[in-house]
Write a structure and sequence with these properties.
With 136 residues, the chain is an alpha/beta fold. The protein has one domain: Glutaredoxin (3-Layer(aba) Sandwich), CATH 3.40.30.10. Helix content is 29%, strand content 21%. Strands 3-2-1-4-5 form a five-stranded mixed beta sheet, with helices on one face. β4 and β5 form a beta hairpin. α1 packs across α4. The longest helix has 15 residues. The radius of gyration is 14 Å and the shape is globular.
Length: 136
């Protein structure tokens, strides 16, 4: 079983963006660290070699600024750029109204759940372990 952790984030932006509260992932008003990205990076390293794949989706963002932030945070999991984002991209197709959101996708492609807000490393580990145990 391979579990995919799909993280839709607004890493850095100069205009409006997702919901929530805080840094660039919320209002998009400033360029800075998205609070969930260090947790995603940490847990992706911890699960290396296990049946878990992390994919970041840089959604509705200023690509150059987001690329710099990804480099500054030393993000090593693959990240794709979804320019349209919540205005017609992946986020729209999945009815995402605010960012960040982390989706869990089972091997068969079904959506196994989501966390519609920034998350901690402990919360992410817990959810991954629950899904891996259930699939065993």
């Amino acid at each position: 079983m391979t579990l995919v952790v799909l993280a839709l984030v607004l890493a850095a932006c100069s205009g409006g963006g997702g919901g929530g509260g805080g840094s660039a992932t919320a209002s998009g008003a400033q360029i800075g660290s998205a609070p969930e990205m260090p947790a995603l990076q940490q847990v992706s390293k911890e699960y290396a070699g296990k049946p878990v794949t992390f994919i970041g989706v840089d959604s509705s963002d200023v690509r150059d600024s987001a690329g710099k932030l990804l480099a500054d945070l030393k993000v090593t999991y693959p990240t794709v750029y979804d320019k349209a984002g919540i205005n017609g991209g992946i986020a729209t197709a999945w009815s995402v109204a605010s960012l960040p959101q982390t989706w869990f996708i089972a091997k068969d492609g079904s959506r196994s759940g989501r966390i519609p807000r920034p998350l901690s490393a402990a919360e992410l580990r817990n959810r991954i372990d629950q899904l891996l145990t259930a699939a065993a």
